Amino acid sequence: MKVLVIGSGAREHALCWKLRQSKHVTELFAAPGSDGISRFAKAVPIAVNEIEKLVTFARENKIDLTVVGPEDPLVAGIVDRFRKKGLRIYGPSESASRLEGSKAFAKDVMRRHAIPTGGFKLYEKAQPALEYLKNCDYPVVIKADGLAAGKGVAICEDYEQAEVAINEAMTKKRFGDAGKRVLIEDFLQGEEISVHAITDGRTILPLCIAQDHKRVGDADTGENTGGMGTYSPLPQVDDALMDQIQDEIIVRSVHAMNRDEVPFKGTMFIGVMLTKQGPRVLEYNVRFGDPEMQTILARLRGDLYEILSATVDGKLDEVEVDWDPHTAVTVVVASGGYPRDYAKGYKIEGLDQDFGRDVMVFHAGTKKDKGEWFTNGGRVLSVTALGTDIADARAKAYAAIEKIKFDKMIYRKDIGWRGMK
Ligand code: GLY
Known about the structure:
The chain is of the alpha+beta class. Helices cover 28% and strands 29% of the residues. The chain folds into 4 domains: 2-91, Rossmann fold, CATH 3.40.50.20; 125-180, Dna Ligase, domain 1 (2-Layer Sandwich), CATH 3.30.1490; 190-323, ATP-grasp fold, B domain (D-amino Acid Aminotransferase, Chain A, domain 1, 2-Layer Sandwich); 327-420, Alpha-Beta Complex (Glycinamide Ribonucleotide Synthetase, Chain A, domain 4). It has helices at residues 10-20, 51-60, 71-75, 78-84, 98-101, 103-112, 126-134, 159-171, 239-259, 292-299, 304-312, 390-401, and strands at residues 2-7, 27-32, 42-43, 65-68, 89-90, 120-123, 140-144, 153-156, 182-186, 191-199, 204-206, 211-212, 215-217, 221-224, 229-232, 266-275, 278-285, 300-301, 322-323, 327-335, 347-348, 359-363, 366-369, 372-375, 379-387, 409-410. Helix 1 (10-20) packs parallel to helix 10 (292-299) and helix 7 runs antiparallel to helix 8. It is globular, with a radius of gyration of 21 Å. Glycine is lined by residues 212, 226-227, 285, 289-290, 292. Glycine binds at residues 212, 226-227, 285, 289-290, 292.
């Protein structure tokens, strides 16, 4: 089978690494891919948002299955475009992708189908939002309704901060159309976990739970990022809590979309806050998490092609998967200044070596020039290791990272700390 993966980050590198192990996959392409990914998949120079060019490539090259990494093409309707041309593609339709593409849509689904989440208000104009903010309880979370590349969320401790957030989104239009509507949400206190489920709309396959580390600094300090590291399993999530999350959140969410006649096929990645009152949905994503998927794939025992292909065909009930009982830890190695301003082009030493059987180094933002590696992004690498427990897995990941060097290299030293308390 010929498979095309859309994307270029460490998540897509991990997807290609796993798909390469499938007995069904004979040829693998990645658009646009990267120098790192090209070890497993031939790079196709088409950007993720060039949907018509991707359709043409898939038709001309008789691609059997396309797998979409990032959210933008999903929200823009890539799945509908591919299906219209009779092409098999893994992911939700444009309508179903509104779960991630519009936070107001997601909250409305949750409200109508009794899916546990925090309270919220939706505003289309700045003035009434500011009026509400004068008398509400703090902290509050202010979110742009649409996709804002992970930047549209502000946690505000008081009115002054909230006023800045509303003005940025609605007056200065920092997030463009994504900030035309704004949600003001209750701040949920607790520990956040990443819940992934694959579904064909009938059968639900929950993936192993992971936890991300959103802040750039150790002990969850500093700015929010796309994620600085993940681990799985989580000792703090027992079977009873997992059952509750499955019943009240995962199953209800899939059924809600069916009942609303917007069936969801693909990956539901749900950010869940473990509050004192029980698990609450923070947000939906309609794709695999990054760096969650690097950790999840390290533990997946099974053929990823079979899982994704069965989902597309509505035959997920025929697939069996198993999880490696070992712990997987992924540490993101970034360039100093990330998530704000960072330079590119630092020479990376030590990348081309054997890190051992239990370590995978996935490339997020690298470039090869005349046989040498250079940084090419804020998040540069994802180093994933398997071990007997969190301490063992992260010791292996950190040992590998110590063999890699580039100027201004940063990474968190405490990945998995909540699971080790
Ligand atoms: N790691 C968070 C995300 O992929 O959205």
